[in-house]
Specification:
The protein has twelve helices and eight strands. Strands 1-2-4-3-5-6-7-8 form an eight-stranded mixed sheet, sandwiched between helices. It has a single domain, classed as Rossmann fold (3-Layer(aba) Sandwich), CATH 3.40.50. The chain has 295 residues and is α/β, with parallel strands linked by helices. The protein starts with 17 loop residues before the first strand and ends in a 7-residue tail after the last helix. The model has no long low-confidence stretch (mean pLDDT 90). Helix 2 crosses helix 3 and helix 6 packs across helix 7. Helix 10 links the parallel strand 7 and strand 8.
């Protein structure tokens, strides 16, 4: 196993993983900008692309990747503007744009179709890609889907404000990140200084904070939710039983909106269910996306 992927020694930095260049059209004259996307690519088998939420990086998958990379080709991406991917000033960071970038990323690394695992707001990028390019998406697993709710801390709720979003992005201190993680875990003993640093390090960059802010401002959940009825891919929705930010009723709304969705609760887990219960998430993946038996 790659040393950077061992849970106790996981390293997510600009010097680990891989980079791929994509050309993104911008402006009325269809000018292009070159964008470097950071990702990790481990294992063999059917491709499974992991999509984190706003404000995270592929670091959030450090416990899960070793659990599934022996059965699947696991590809974890730092979204545009996040982690160690480029942060173009000209980007809108809308749901549509993030989904489009993921498609271009697939083209660049030669992936025709993949299964997807999305987390929280990242689920909207996955479902948008499935809606607009259904042939590129296989099965979808959505972990605690949805956007900013009233249960989240004030500085997170302020991020999607046009007036106060800039102030909120500046409040993303290491202490704030630690406080947020403590709300996202059921078992608070898991919130170590190492994990807080792993989450906060990319957010020290001013351009990352700007990308996080605009991703939140341009996250149109109402429009995205209405489009779910046009997503026909088989979908499994998973929610932690002790999720403080997204309620069971909230997750059930997504199940009702998606034509071909199933819903299950992961016991004894908070919002970051894939971090607290990686073995249970891995088991759900393997049951929902069975590995073909080679005779």
């Amino acid at each position: 196993m790659n040393l950077s992927l061992q849970p106790k020694k996981f390293i997510n930095s600009q010097h680990t993983g891989k980079y791929v260049k994509i050309n993104v059209p911008y402006g009325r004259k269809n000018a292009e900008i070159e964008l470097n996307l950071h990702y990790m690519d481990e294992g063999n088998g059917e491709p499974l692309i992991l999509v984190h939420t706003i404000g995270q990086s592929l670091y959030t998958w450090r416990n899960l990747i070793p659990q599934i990379s022996s059965q699947y080709r696991v590809i974890a991406i730092d979204l545009m503007g996040h982690g160690y991917s480029d942060k173009p000033i000209s980007a809108l960071y809308s749901i549509e744009e993030h989904a489009h970038i993921i498609r271009l990323f697939m083209d660049a690394i030669g992936i025709e179709s993949a299964h997807f695992l999305g987390f929280s707001m990242g689920c909207a990028y996955v479902t948008e890609l499935a809606r607009t390019n259904p042939d590129r998406v296989g099965k979808m697993l959505l972990l605690s889907p949805g956007g900013i709710t009233s249960q989240m801390p004030l500085y997170i709720r302020m991020l999607d404000s046009v007036l106060f979003g800039g102030i909120a992005s500046m409040l993303l201190s290491q202490k704030r990140v630690e406080e947020a993680l403590q709300q996202c875990y059921l078992d608070l003993t898991l919130v170590s200084p190492e994990i807080v640093k792993g989450y906060f390090s990319p957010l020290e960059d001013v351009e990352t904070r700007r990308a996080v802010r605009f991703s939140a401002v341009n996250y149109d959940e109402e429009a995205s939710f209405k489009d779910l009825r046009n997503v026909v891919n088989q979908t499994l929705i998973l929610l932690g039983s002790d999720d403080r930010w997204h309620s069971t009723e909230y997750a059930e709304l997504f199940q009702a909106a998606l034509p071909n969705a199933y819903f299950s609760v992961v016991r004894n887990a908070g919002h970051l269910l894939h971090e607290e219960k990686p073995e249970k998430i891995a088991s759900a993946i393997k049951q929902f996306v069975p590995v073909p038996i080679i005779e």
